[in-house]
Design brief:
598 residues; alpha/beta; five-stranded mixed beta sheet; 22 helices; cystathionine gamma-synthase
Length: 598
C-alpha cells in the first residue's frame, strides 16, 4: 500500500468503513495529532478504535442524547448492562462526587411489545449507554480505552439502524438525573404498565396486523442492510473455526461452513487435553487482557500483579487502576527476575505476572522458563500476550496459565475488524478456578458480524505469517547494515534471542515486527518522512505499516520511556506481504533520503 495513494487522515485501508488505522504521513503529522493541532485532527476520518471514537459510535451516541438526555450531556456506549455498570463504578471511584452523581445508564434492547423477525430476535442486539456531563468524559474515556469494553463500530452501526427504525428502545423508562421527557419514536409514546394498570386489557393476545407488518419490516431491515455480511447460521461455526484456528487445530484454508471440524487433540499447541471451550473470544485484544485480570482476581483474590517488561500502555493501566496495583519491571531482564525472586523469597506474594512475548516495541523476550519456575514455587499466575510472536512462530502456552492475543493484528491482517482471544492452559495450576470464574462471570460480547469478518480474514493466517517472517528478516538485514542506523530491535538479533529460541516452533520464524533507531533525530525524521509505506498506528497488517511508535504511544511520558531504554525517536515497522525486492527498494530509498540529512 504505497503512501502516495494515501492522504493525511485517510483510513488505512482507504475507503474502508471499519478501518483500524489512519494515515499520518510525516513526523510532524504525528506530533500534530498528539498535540491536537487542527491541521491534523480536522482531517482525520478515523483512528485506532480504542483511542479514536468511531463515527458510527458517535452517531448512535448522538441519537441517544438527542432522544433521551439533556443538551450538553454525552454517552459512552457498551454492549451489555454489566459492562456499562462497570464503567459507572469506575467513574464514581475516580471522579468528584458532584460529577459522579450526575451519571446515569439507559439499557436498550429490542422492543418486546411488537413482533420482530426470528432472525433479529435470535441476534438479540443490545446497547447500554452511560450518560454523563462533559466533566466526566476524561474518566469515562479512560475506562473505555483501557478495558476495551465498548461497543464495536459494526454493532453501533447496526443498532443505530434499529433505533432509527423504532426497533431498539429503552428496556425501562429513563429516570432522573436525565431530566428530560421520554422522546423515543412515536410508536413508543404509550402508557406503560406503571402508568396505566389496565394497559394490558387493550391488547389482544393474537398478533395484530401491525405486529406482523413490523416483523416483516424488521426482517427486511436485517437482510437488506446487513444480510450480505451477517449470516447468523454461520456465526457459531465461524466462532468454532476461529477458536480451533487459534488452538492450532484447524487447517487455515478450511472454511467455517464445512460439515465437520478436525479433533482438537491434533493441535500445534502440543496439549492433547486442550478443548475448544478453553479458547475464549473477545471484542478486542485489550478486552482479553482486562478479562484475564478479572478472572485471576475472581479466582485468586485481590492481590497486586506484576507487569514484566516495557508495557503496552493500557496493560499497565489495567493492572494499576483495577485492583490494588502492580509492581513494574520495565526491562524484562534477568536482573529484574533476580529482584523479583528476592521479593518473593522475603515473603511478598502476587496475583499474576503479565508480559508480552516478544515485547513492544523493543521485541525483548522475557525468560519464560524461569518465570514459570518462580510461579510454581511462589504461587502466582502467568499471563502471556503472544500477539507479536503469534502461535505459528512460538509456543508460549507451555509456560502460561492464560495466553492472550489481539486478533486485530496479524491473525486478521486486513485491518478492518477488531478481536481478541484468550486460551486457558488445561494443564495449569489454576485451570479449574479460572474456568469457573469465566463460566460464572464472562459475557460473550463479540458482535456476530465482527466474528464473520474475523473468520474470513484469518483463513490464510499461517501462510501470511510465513511470508511476513521472510520479509521482516530481509528488512532487518538492510537496516542493520546501514551506517546511519544505531540499532535494530528484532528477536533474531536481540540479546534475548535464546529466550525466543526456547519457544520457537519447528519451522517458525521471528515475526513481522521490528524497530529501528538512528544516531540522530534528523535522520530518523528524514527516513520516516521519505519511506513509501502506509504510516499509522496498529501492526500485523498485510501491508507494511510504519510508525514513530514512541511518539504515538508515550508522547506525554517520553522521558519516562527513555529512562527504560526506549528511544523517543524509535521507528516501528510492521512488515507486510509485499514482494521482497519491492520492500528492499522502498527501505533503501528511505535510507538514501536520510543520508542527505547527514
Amino acid at each position: 500500500m504505497p503512501a502516495l495513494d494515501l492522504e493525511l487522515g485517510q483510513s488505512i485501508p482507504p475507503d474502508t468503513a471499519h478501518a483500524v488505522s489512519v494515515h499520518l504521513p510525516t513526523w510532524q503529522a504525528n506530533v500534530g495529532y498528539e498535540e491536537g493541532q487542527s491541521w491534523v485532527v480536522n482531517k482525520m476520518t478515523t483512528g485506532y478504535p480504542r483511542f479514536f471514537i468511531h463515527k458510527s459510535i458517535i452517531a448512535l451516541s448522538d441519537e441517544i442524547i438527542t432522544q433521551y438526555a439533556r443538551h450538553g450531556q454525552k454517552a459512552m456506549l457498551f454492549p451489555t448492562a454489566r459492562a456499562a455498570r462497570r464503567c459507572l463504578a469506575f467513574i464514581q471511584k475516580n471522579s468528584d462526587p458532584s460529577v459522579a452523581s450526575d451519571v446515569a445508564i439507559i439499557d436498550f434492547c429490542l422492543d418486546s411489545s411488537t413482533g420482530v423477525s426470528p432472525l433479529l430476535r435470535s441476534l438479540s442486539p443490545t446497547v447500554s449507554a452511560v450518560i454523563y456531563s462533559h466533566e466526566a468524559f476524561p474518566v469515562a474515556k479512560q475506562y473505555w480505552q483501557h478495558t476495551g469494553d465498548g461497543v464495536s463500530s459494526r454493532r453501533a452501526e447496526f443498532c443505530h439502524g434499529l433505533m432509527k427504525e423504532g426497533l431498539l428502545v429503552p428496556s425501562e423508562r429513563p429516570q432522573s438525573p436525565l431530566g428530560k421527557a421520554f422522546r423515543g419514536p412515536k410508536r413508543y409514546h404509550r402508557p406503560s404498565s406503571i402508568d396505566d394498570t389496565s394497559a394490558a386489557s387493550h391488547h389482544s393476545s393474537k398478533p395484530s396486523h401491525q405486529s406482523a407488518f413490523e416483523s416483516q419490516e424488521s426482517l427486511r431491515f436485517l437482510e437488506e442492510r446487513f444480510g450480505r455480511n451477517l449470516d447468523l447460521s454461520l456465526v457459531e461455526r465461524a466462532r468454532s473455526a476461529i477458536k480451533r484456528r487459534i488452538a492450532g487445530a484447524l487447517a487455515v484454508d478450511v472454511e467455517a461452513s464445512i460439515s465437520s471440524l478436525p479433533p482438537m487433540a491434533n493441535n500445534s499447541r502440543g496439549l492433547e487435553d486442550l478443548q475448544e471451550s478453553d479458547v475464549y473470544l473477545f471484542p478486542c485484544g485489550m478486552n482479553a487482557i482486562f478479562n484475564a485480570h478479572r478472572a485471576m482476581t475472581r479466582a485468586r483474590g485481590d492481590m497486586k500483579s506484576i507487569n514484566f517488561g516495557f508495557p503496552y500502555v493500557d496493560t499497565l493501566k489495567i493492572l494499576q487502576k483495577f485492583g490494588p496495583g502492580c509492581v513494574f519491571y520495565g526491562h524484562a531482564s534477568e536482573e529484574d527476575l533476580d529482584n523479583l525472586e528476592q521479593r518473593l523469597e522475603s515473603g511478598e506474594r502476587f496475583l499474576a505476572l503479565f508480559c508480552e512475548f516478544p515485547g513492544n516495541p523493543l521485541l525483548t523476550c522475557p525468560n519464560l522458563a524461569r518465570i514459570r519456575g518462580l510461579a510454581d514455587k511462589f504461587d502466582f499466575g502467568v499471563v502471556v500476550d503472544e500477539t507479536i510472536g503469534s502461535f505459528v512462530n512460538v509456543d508460549v502456552l507451555q509456560f502460561a496459565d492464560i495466553v492472550v492475543s489481539s486478533l486485530t493484528k496479524i491473525f486478521s491482517g486486513d485491518c478492518n475488524v477488531m478481536g481478541g482471544s484468550a486460551i486457558l492452559n488445561p494443564s495449569g495450576k489454576y485451570y479449574q478456578s479460572l474456568k469457573k470464574a469465566w463460566d460464572e462471570d464472562l459475557e460473550d460480547t463479540y458482535w456476530p458480524e465482527d466474528v464473520v469478518f474475523m473468520e474470513r480474514n484469518s483463513r490464510d493466517f499461517a501462510s501470511r505469517v510465513e511470508r511476513i517472517n521472510a520479509n521482516a528478516e530481509a528488512i532487518c538485514d538492510i537496516l542493520s547494515a546501514h551506517q546511519l542506523v544505531k540499532r535494530v530491535y528484532y528477536p533474531k538479533v536481540n540479546p534475548t534471542r535464546p529466550n525466543y529460541e526456547l519457544c520457537r516452533m519447528p519451522g517458525g520464524g521471528y515475526g513481522g515486527l521490528l524497530s529501528v533507531t538512528f544516531h540522530n533525530k534528523e535522520h530518523a525524521m528524514a527516513f520516516f518522512d521519505a519511506i513509501e509505506t502506509a504510516k499509522g498506528p496498529s501492526l500485523g497488517t498485510n501491508f507494511t505499516l510504519t510508525s514513530p511508535y514512541v511518539l504515538l504511544a508515550h508522547y506525554q511520558e517520553l522521558d519516562w520511556a527513555a529512562g527504560l531504554g526506549v528511544d523517543p525517536d524509535l521507528i516501528r515497522v510492521s512488515v507486510g506481504l509485499e514482494e521482497t525486492t519491492e520492500l528492499r527498494e522502498t527501505f533503501s530509498l528511505a535510507l538514501e533520503a536520510a543520508e542527505k540529512q547527514a
